[in-house]
Amino acid sequence: MRQWNGRWIELIKGSLQTQYVRQYPIQRVPMNRMLQPCLRSPSNSKVVPLTSFVRTLLVGAHGRFIYSSSSQVTQILQDHVKVSSSRNSYYGFRTFCTAKDLSTKKCVPCNATDLRPMTEQAANELIPKVPGWSLVNEGGTLKLNRSWKVKSFTKGLELFQVVADIAEAEGHHPDLHLVGWNNVTIEIWTHSVGGLSENDFILASKISALDFHHLLRRKAVT
Ligand SMILES: C[C@H](O)[C@H](O)[C@H]1CNC2=NC(N)=NC(=O)C2=N1
């Protein structure tokens, strides 16, 4: 397995440093729709997402990105590299699918022993996929957060019920707050890992897809 990982790393290094990095500007890097494997370090102790690995390859000797910005690299990889946290491993790599189809994915049981909290960098790369949601760090615990103003206290409870139905279906649950009778805030994080997992983004995406505008207070016309 280790030799195979090493081979894989050499392959990527080779292709990126010879074929693409010198000949194509970043926007035309013809990266195939490859599955983003996580590369295992030789000691097998560390799992490095390919996105970060490739990004280090694109850093020139002088420590600056050969390309205009790391966000471009991330965007290229996000668009072309499939990312999700499916459990199925492929030759020891965790396979992923695009962050774009979060709302079509299913949450996985949170009691899996290999579930780890997502890094802040990974969370920042995913947050654009759940518009309206904010990434907050509460005493070192990363969470997703979104607020609404509802028409009344009872409409707030109705909104909770609609969200509860989704949460129960997904087996993954948000923290629900109803403050000052009409201020609803939903926080989503994975309690079993003390941080964020892809489950949280999946649930946020499904909550965003719910139609509960009839429960919300109309925005004051300015
Ligand atoms: C086995 C099942 O996945 C766990 O009990 C679930 C239930 N819902 C959950 N919801 C959230 N947000 N975090 C959890 O860790 C969690 N665990």
Topology:
Blueprint (H helix, E strand, L loop, with lengths): L1 H19 L17 E3 L6 E3 H8 L12 H11 L8 E2 L2 E2 L25 H7 L7 E5 L2 E9 L3 H18 L4 E5 L3 E6 L9 H11 L14
Antiparallel strand pairs: 1-2, 3-4, 5-6, 6-8, 7-8
Bound molecules: the ligand C[C@H](O)[C@H](O)[C@H]1CNC2=NC(N)=NC(=O)C2=N1.
Helix content: 25-40%
Spatial strand order of the main sheet? 5-6-8-7
Bound molecules: ligand H2B
Order of helices and strands: HEEHHEEHEEHEEH
For the biggest sheet, the summary is: 4 strands, antiparallel
Quote the distance from N terminus to C terminus: 62 Å
Shape label: globular
User: Which residues form runs of ≥5 with pLDDT under 50?
Assistant: 1-98
> How many strands appear in the DSSP assignment?
8
Radius of gyration: 20 Å
Question: What is the beta-strand fraction?
Answer: 15-25%
Overall average residue pLDDT: 70
Treating each run of at least 4 consecutive H or I residues as one helix, how many helices?
6
Task: Describe the model.
With 222 residues, the protein is of the alpha+beta class. The protein has helices spanning 2-20, 50-57, 70-80, 120-126, 153-170, 198-208, and strands spanning 38-40, 47-49, 89-90, 93-94, 134-138, 141-149, 175-179, 183-188. 25% of the residues are buried. Residues 1-98 have low confidence and may be disordered. The structure holds the ligand C[C@H](O)[C@H](O)[C@H]1CNC2=NC(N)=NC(=O)C2=N1. Pfam families: Pterin_4a.
In short:
Its EC number is 4.2.1.96. The chain has 222 residues and is α+β, with helices and mostly antiparallel strands.
Annotation keywords:
222 residues, binds the ligand C[C@H](O)[C@H](O)[C@H]1CNC2=NC(N)=NC(=O)C2=N1, two-stranded antiparallel ribbon, 6 helices, lyase, EC 4.2.1.96, Pterin_deHydtase, disordered N terminus, 4-alpha-hydroxytetrahydrobiopterin dehydratase activity, alpha+beta, single chain, 4-stranded antiparallel β-sheet
